[in-house]
């Protein structure tokens, strides 16, 4: 039983009331901390009584012991004992500081799953530190300076250092990460060397990862005619039509050229189509300049302002096209999470505009049906793969038009990209697939003929995703299927090199070669290791042309994985050597010799053949065989007739 008397002391008095109530609940029985909901209910009732009472009131608060059943004086409900509590806690007993500040659900691990995924600095603050912070923020009156109960933790519950890498990969991976390349890299490295494994991160997701900026410059939203001249705009549009539009093809070229001609007739009048013109020009800059320029950043900022202002009205196909251009630019330059958020918003804009429904059913005859389907296909493609990479859910629109559009121009290869969309959506992490289904998806993916480098890289990206799913099921690809996979990866490396040679900074230029390195290390056979050098060479060429933090990090991480793999192989070889030295000390191991033709083989190449003679003596079926004949007959010797039956039956 504890009581407290309150008097009208203004704001200071009410602060004292709040603090005193906190001290009452803080000094309660230790077991009472197990029921935060009941304790919170008592606090609310106590504050309610105080607010309804007269200026001079005495409040009595009855608190039950942890070992007895008490009664709530306000409601008369029994307070449950530990044995009566049926519902288990849904949250961890402790939460790290980043999760507490962001009000995220924490799993209590070190580092926790949220901090691993979002790369926060995971750390925990002890109860003692929290008390120190509270005492520093609110001075304790002298009459309340009684020692607070100490909650001691066992040494085993103390948080390990932040840099510890002993957490298993499986504990950090979520079901939504099944398709994520970052999760696969982490699990691969943890299987090779947990102590030196790289962090969970999307390496080489694109060439920039948010670093395409101008130092010291803040982008400004301006009129298009203030940023570019008409001649510059025409040049950038030509670049877009030549390099970007054949891959996506969601721009109405006729309307684009028409609006371009009209725009400079009224230079100070801005409309919603300026978002499309700004997006096209920004992508034109991206494919002509390795480094960002101020005009490019202003174009992106201007398009963003127009699209944000249009959010107050009903969206149309022009706004949807502007959003799609923005997301296409972000996919090549921005961080994964920023791209994913914008891709989700883009799909909701498309839904609000009604562009996701079958145009023959919706009755909207003002829009080209094939153009509408192209917008929807590209939007779904970007959102699906971005959600797979970051391990988040994708946007699934209802009553969607699943018909694929035909090619719009002779140089259009967007249909190759759209053909992969149904297969990509079939790999949704929420839909479990067994080995046979994944094998069938792999065979179907590799059966398509892709010609353009960006399309080949997208096909390979899907192939690598299926490989990762098969590895999660502990299935080792082999035989004819492995040969097809390695043929596809070799084709992808050539496609990435072509993009580098032509100055086309597509997002897969570094991403796919890096993921190929990881898959080759996971396959780990002579065929895959033989292709490893080509993959690293392409990554190195990417760094030479696009020298950014993202590309250098990808190359160094790939080199780290190879080095860890090499160390493990060397350790295995050393273990085998030690076994031979221990249990076969008289054996003379053959020295490494350069490869030679079989007819030049002689006894000296094998060292002393005494150990082979002893091996022959131990095998009755080989009695009478002269080992010197093997070495001195230039690869030809007579085999006894009685051996033939033994060999055939062997």
TrEMBL record:
Record field: compositional bias (Low complexity): 145-164
GO molecular function: DNA binding; DNA-binding transcription factor activity, RNA polymerase II-specific; zinc ion binding
Classification via Gene3D superfamilies: Zn(2)-C6 fungal-type DNA-binding domain
Keywords: DNA-binding, Metal-binding, Nucleus, Transcription, Transcription regulation, Zinc
Span list, region Disordered: 70-96, 141-164
GO biological process: response to xenobiotic stimulus
Signal peptide as annotated in the record: none
Highest taxon of the lineage: Eukaryota
The protein's name in its UniProt record: Zn(2)-C6 fungal-type domain-containing protein
Organism of derivation: Teratosphaeria nubilosa
Origin organism lineage: Eukaryota, Fungi, Dikarya, Ascomycota, Pezizomycotina
């Amino acid at each position: 039983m504890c009581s407290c008397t309150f008097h009208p002391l203004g704001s200071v008095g009410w602060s004292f009331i709040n603090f005193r109530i906190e001290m009452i609940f803080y000094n309660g029985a230790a077991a009472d901390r197990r029921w935060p909901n009941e304790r919170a209910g008592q606090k609310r009732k106590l504050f309610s009584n105080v607010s309804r009472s007269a200026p001079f009131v005495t409040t009595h608060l009855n608190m039950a012991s942890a070992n007895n059943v008490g009664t709530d004086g306000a409601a008369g409900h029994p307070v449950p004992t530990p044995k009566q509590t049926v519902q288990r806690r849904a949250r961890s007993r402790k939460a790290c500081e980043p999760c507490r500040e962001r009000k995220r659900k924490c799993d209590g691990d070190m580092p926790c799953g949220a901090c691993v995924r979002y790369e926060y600095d995971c750390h925990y603050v002890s109860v003692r530190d929290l008390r120190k912070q509270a005492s520093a923020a609110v001075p304790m009156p002298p009459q309340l300076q009684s020692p607070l109960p100490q909650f001691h933790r066992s040494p085993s519950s103390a948080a390990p250092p932040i840099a510890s890498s002993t957490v298993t990969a499986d504990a950090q991976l979520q079901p939504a990460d099944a398709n994520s390349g970052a999760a696969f890299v982490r699990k691969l490295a943890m299987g090779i060397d947990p102590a030196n494994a790289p962090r969970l991160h999307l390496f080489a997701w694109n060439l920039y990862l948010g670093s395409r900026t101008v130092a010291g410059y803040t982008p400004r939203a301006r009129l298009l005619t203030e940023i570019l001249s008409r001649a510059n705009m025409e040049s950038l549009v030509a670049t877009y039509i030549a390099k970007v539009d054949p891959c996506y093809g969601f721009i109405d070229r006729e309307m684009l050229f028409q609006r371009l001609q009209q725009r400079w007739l009224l230079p100070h009048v801005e409309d919603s189509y300026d978002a499309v013109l700004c997006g096209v020009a920004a992508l034109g800059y991206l494919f002509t300049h390795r480094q960002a320029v101020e005009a490019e950043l202003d174009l992106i900022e201007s398009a963003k302002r127009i699209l944000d202002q249009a959010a107050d009205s009903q969206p149309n196909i022009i706004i949807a096209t502007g959003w799609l251009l923005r997301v296409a630019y972000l996919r090549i330059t921005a961080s994964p999470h920023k791209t994913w958020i914008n891709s989700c918003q883009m799909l909701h804009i498309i839904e609000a505009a009604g562009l996701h429904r079958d145009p023959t059913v919706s009755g909207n005859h003002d829009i080209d049906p094939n153009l509408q389907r192209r917008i929807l296909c590209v939007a779904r493609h970007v959102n699906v793969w971005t959600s797979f990479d970051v391990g988040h859910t994708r946007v699934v629109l209802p009553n969607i038009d699943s018909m694929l559009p035909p090619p719009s121009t002779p140089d259009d290869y967007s249909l190759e990209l759209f053909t992969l969309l149904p297969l990509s959506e079939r790999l949704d992490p929420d839909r479990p697939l067994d080995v046979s289904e994944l094998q069938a998806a792999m065979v179907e993916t590799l059966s398509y003929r892709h010609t353009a480098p960006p399309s080949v890289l997208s096909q390979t990206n899907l192939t690598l995703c299926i490989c990762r799913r098969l590895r999660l099921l502990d299935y080792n690809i082999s035989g004819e299927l492995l040969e097809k996979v390695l043929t596809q990866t070799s084709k992808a490396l050539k496609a990435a090199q072509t993009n580098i040679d032509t100055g086309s900074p597509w997002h897969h230029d570094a991403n796919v070669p890096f993921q190929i390195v990881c898959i080759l290390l996971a396959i780990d056979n002579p065929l895959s290791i033989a292709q490893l050098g080509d993959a690293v060479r392409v990554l190195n060429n990417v760094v030479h042309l696009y020298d950014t933090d993202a590309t250098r990090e990808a190359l160094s991480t790939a080199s780290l994985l190879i080095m860890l793999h090499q160390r493990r192989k060397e350790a295995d070889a050393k273990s085998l050597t030690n076994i031979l030295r221990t249990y076969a000390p008289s054996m003379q191991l053959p020295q490494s010799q350069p490869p030679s033709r079989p007819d030049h083989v002689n006894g000296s190449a094998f060292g002393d053949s005494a150990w082979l003679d002893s091996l022959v003596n131990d095998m009755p079926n080989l009695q009478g065989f002269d080992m010197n004949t093997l070495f001195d007959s230039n690869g030809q010797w007579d085999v006894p007739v009685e051996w033939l039956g033994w060999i055939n039956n062997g």
